[in-house]
Amino acid sequence: xxxxxxxxxxxxxxxxxxxxxxxxxxxxxxxxxxxxxxxxxxxxxxxxxxxxxxxxxxxxxxxxxxxxxxxxxxxxxxxxxxxxxxxxxxxxxxxxxxxxxxxxxxxxxxxxxxxxxxxxxxxxxxxxxxxxxxxxxxxxxxxxxxxxxxxxxxxxxxxxxxxxxxxxxxxxxxxxxxxxxxxxxxxxxxxxxxxxxxxxxxxxxxxxxxxxxxxxxxxxxxxxxxxxxxxxxxxxxx
Length: 238
Known about the structure:
Elements lengths: L1 H16 L6 E13 L10 E3 L5 E9 L7 E8 L7 E3 L8 E3 L2 E2 L9 H4 L3 E2 L8 E3 L7 E9 L12 E10 L7 E6 L7 E3 L6 E5 L1 E5 L5 H22 L1
């Protein structure tokens, strides 16, 4: 409750400062699969192949628009109603969702002036504000990855920064299609503002988990087997 109140106050303040102006240029949120316990899965993109029992890790990346980014609050949804393919996966003492602040690591000259111009954004309070596990009837959520600064924050020239990650276990046989989305799902807490305290429009990324496709050799053998069965059936009829 305290974290939600702090976020709501921050969003309200930024909104009040920017009432007279329109939304700033776009920022971008990308969802990228970072790892999988299944060595056959290919990582590094927004789509991954999986099977029941696999543990997979999703990275959330944020890129500022042309006017920079001084604060953000972003949430993730997973498993639309009718699907329950993913379960949040705490590992030991580690929670299923990890939130990062932002401190750009750059080699800068002259020091120390360039150091103080390097954007630093810190979470308002530690950790995400809450999680909702998906069921066959309900969508799952991870609320809210957030950070902010009183000075200038993330600049577009610094590229994409990872703001968090989520660990999942694949729960049921996989049905191809989009499974995860990013957005302002935590009403009253989520939002994004540029370095002039103007609201930012966001290009939202999604991610998917797909079933493993048969390898070409396996598919060919399966096809030959089916042809053999058909021919054997014809011989028996003759």
